[in-house]
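DATA SHEET
Item: assembly model
Revision: 1
Owner: S.N.
Input lines:
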Amino acid sequence: MGFGQFLAAPEIKLKIVTYRDVFQNTAQETSRFGEDYEKLSAVIKLDPKDMVKLSIKEGETVVVKNAFGKVVVTAQSSGHEEAHQGIAYMVNGPWSNALVPDETGGTGVPKFKDFEATVQGSKGEKVTGIRDIF
Amino acid sequence: MSEYYVCTGCALLCDDIEVDIEGNKVATVHAACRKGVARMKGCSDPMECTVDGEKAEVDTAISKAAEILSDAKNPLIFGHGNSSSEAQKRSIALAKKTGAYIDDTSSFCQGPIVEAILQDKIKTCTLDDVRHKADVIIFWGADPSNSHPRHLSRYSYFPRGKERQRGWEEDRTAITIDVRKSDTAVISGDNRFYQIPMGGDAEFMDALVSALSGKVPKTSYGFDVKRILELSGVLKKAKFGVICVGLGLVYSLEELEPLFKLMNKLNEVSDFNLIPMVGQYNMRGFNHDLFEETGYINRVKFNPETGEAEHGAEQSVVEALRNRSVDAALIIGSDPLSSLPLSVSRYLAEIPLITIDPCQNLTATRSTVTIPCALGGVEAGGTAIRMDGVEIEMKKIVDTDKLSDEEILTRITEAI
């Protein structure tokens, strides 16, 4: 155990955009409760510089939360060539939907592809299971 | 001769699928994408028939569902994107009978676009037209490489169409406009990928209209003017253009006016059509069915006395749940606890809930009644409407003991 565990992990606020992934969608067709679906859904894709700010490495888990919900997901580098600091990507699914605000301005359409959340290293917490999201 | 079936993995409804059957199960699926293969082979955890969490006979579950819906003052019927048109019509009749709210996924995705098409406000074409004629294809806020994997190979980019014999190499230009470099953007190539900031779509449309009108295109985010002018040159020269509208664009536009303006301008200088990238295989079918019945494509509440349809944002599934104005819900072929914001859908777990689906899902785990149904396009046939509005006939592939959702809805309606 190192000294680091007593320090608060750095936290940053990010805009989140959701997207579709064919592999995750395929896993959903087979089983929403399967390991593959969790592995491919409970993920946040970050800009490498944001990962440095968070002091986390590829594959570590992070806590993503806002006033609407909180989930622990795996952090991955987005792999996009263009820098996108301040913007993170989450695949559309129960984990991202746990964070989508209920605010609609009365339009009936939530902001699935444009909402804010804070991200923080989880110090080894396990990914939130699908049955625990609720 | 080979027998071809229809894949219900998405609203492309690919109708060139061959299957091998072993022991009354689809064992191998040929020609479909990986998502389609998974859909047609069926899920590994089918839903069980239950009442109050205990295993039950289908007859008991149907009676209980009928009881819940009769007792409710303002029930909600939601889902429909993964049901045949025949089942959807049954659902609309049930909503009318019970004075229910009725809605579908289009309410928070492609609804505005489908509505504009059905009201003749936007020029559209079929996917077959795209395959045979389209030379300029714009994917706007859409990433079919992930959402509709065979879109590019079967229709929009790679095929040798009747008037596009040289395919993608020489005859077609694919353009991606998106906030991130998606897999489809990679296929379009760096020269044909236009990365815009989040929420920058309407301005980019206005800029394109300016460029197409011979004016200097400007955006507040300083998009390279030369690139917009060059893009407008490509669009002007198009013989048959198509804009494939994805959710990225739908969510970004507060109103459709900028899109109407762009389409009008494009059709002054060239020939352009628009197709919505509908996700679930028969979402568009539901829009057509409800439009035929009420003049509205979604977001309807039937008056229990007069049977008249009230329509508006307040009648949408999201607002009805946010305002807690429903007191029971029937979900068909959908998993709102997964697909809606949890902050909105959480309320469903507080009211009597009925789920009809072939597979176990999150909503089912919170439901009072769960009734398994046959898998559409595999264990039950019927008709569906493809994303471009073309009606497709689905044949049953294998037999099942399970009732179809159409039969379940008929029996619930009869029991009320």
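QC remark: Chain A touches chain B through 46 residues (CB under 8 Å).
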